[in-house]
């Protein structure tokens, strides 16, 4: 996959600079003090930040960012081991635009949520807003849509006429669900209910879920269809699965930041960069039907609000 062109398009259009303390000092000061010490300045266009300025920037230390190694086409490993994917390229472009270095680390989603809550990593992409996560996380502007459907083995979806979530119980199905991932309030409530919890098997990765579905250990997966089909193709299982039309969930996803290590000012800068990238044709091409629309404000140069 070639590098996304977002960077070339926007690097000459705007730059963000921060003055004040480093992220490593965030735990040592209260939020109010940090607000007084930090400032965000919008500059367009200017030359790239100097080395000295970058060292004094709020995000001069690399942000530790969780990634998935098997969430095709959004975040996955290339044959040589490099992390690639549409979300990965977007993350790299956005943080380069605001001159923030990052370190990508593959880890299971459930572990990533725990690590983020404890301040051991700084950011998790493709995250939904939940009441529990909001206790320890900040969120960026949304950057694409995420959706979940029931994925069955080929030829089996039509044998289960599901029109509501509790039909899973009526059909005596066992569905796979990746630990700690959020698939909407409808499924979340079902998964936590006394009856529903017995019909959900928790997996660690997309690959594990696909293997279990292939071998008949579960009846369906609650997952992003494009991710399942993409990973399945890479596993040599092209055409082995199909998508049930029942709409489990769909909503925008965000970058999720640890409140312990990342101040709101940095999140705001990331959000502004995301909004600008969303204006590009390349963004629309990269994300297709999952791309978020641009509100028609009548002024194409007006800030993109969500």
From TrEMBL:
Keywords linked to the UniProt accession: Signal
Pfam families membership: SBP_bac_3
Domain Solute-binding protein family 3/N-terminal: 62-290
InterPro entries, A to Z: Solute-binding_3/MltF_N
Source domain of life: Bacteria
Annotated protein name in UniProt: Putative amino-acid-binding protein YxeM
